[in-house]
Amino acid sequence: MKSSICNSISFELDTGKCYLYERTVSQYHLETVNGFISTDRFEWTGELLESCNGHTCPNNTLCISSSIGPSTCDIVGCYATSELEPVLTLDQRVYPVGYTLENGCMQGYYSNSSVVCQSDGVWSSFICLPYPRGCDELRQCNNSYEDGDYWLFHQVGGQTKKMKIYCHELNSIDPTAYITLQYPNTASKSSYKYISNATCNVTAFSASEILTKSLGETVFHKISVDTLTLRLVRLRSTFANFTHFTKYAMAKDCTNFINPTCPSLGTFVIDLRNTGFVIQAGATWTLTGKNPKKIDYINFTEGNQVVHGRCGGSCGGCNKNGLYVEINEALQPDIESAVFPVCNV
User: What mean pLDDT value characterizes the chain?
Assistant: First the structure.
């Protein structure tokens, strides 16, 4: 009853437990209802509360009575301020001195320091900063960072999810984001053709044909991504090996399909295992290029982490317009595999 928050007390007859309430519960000195004896603190006599009788101490203090002088209000904690209410984990009005919040900010933001209830009853000061969502924001967050893998953050549906992103050319005004691929990812405009009508035996195009038709396989070690939309930027070839570049997730060939039972020779492989990303559900491929003939198959495995495609035509094949990925937090690599950003304030 020495706290202004406590305006009444109830004693449960069956269990012997006492309960403190912020509201008043009785109009009488003592009232028995449903197995509880209740009383308001304002009904208590001055002898019980001494100089704390009728005190007006703030809610984050306790009234300390004195037999020889006026009572004092001793600070015991900090108010649950409107600024901190969304991130406080306990359902209470006052938090004890020393109570620490690792992050005092709303979802999608972080505090530049821990937030502590200080002995003066005031929360320590802090600044809320947005988690870096892209490599440009990472560069602004800490300009000492160099190219490498970092944990960046994507907001979707009111949730903030972390994602492992490789930031390239961080010292430039326009750094780019990539997903570091852990397994072979390929796209091809096949440099092979069928030999005859009778069989499905293949032979390589001549060097001059490979040059004029821009044939060959592209192997991707990283694939660029727009970190705000999670759309793959499939024409960037910075981290790819090739003689003639083929766009990521595309497959073509230049066969004439003399024997229609022969499979297409153009193939692609998407393999996002150990990246934390999956191909967006419902993705479909369509025919593309000169004289496209057929899509043999587009197979999704490993929970949309892996996609194999086989397509072809007379220098045609298949493509996916607007290829997006999704974050799957259950599939994310170890936290130690990338740097968790620490921003300069």
Answer: 86
**Buried b / exposed e along 294-319 (16+ C-beta atoms within 10 A):** bbbebebeeebbbbebbbbbebbbbb
What stretch of H or E contains 208? helix 207-213
> Position 60: which residue type?
N
Length of the chain: 345
242: which 2 tokens? Answer: 């090739």
Which of 98-112, 193-207, 261-275 has the lowest average pLDDT? 98-112
Of 2.10.70.10, 2.30.30.240, 3.40.30.10, 3.90.1150.10, the CATH number of 76-130 is: 2.10.70.10
Q: What is the DSSP letter of 139?
A: H
pLDDT of 54 over the 90 cut: no
Please give the C-alpha separations between residue 155 and each of 160, 161, 188, in angstroms, as whole numbers.
Answer: 4, 6, 34
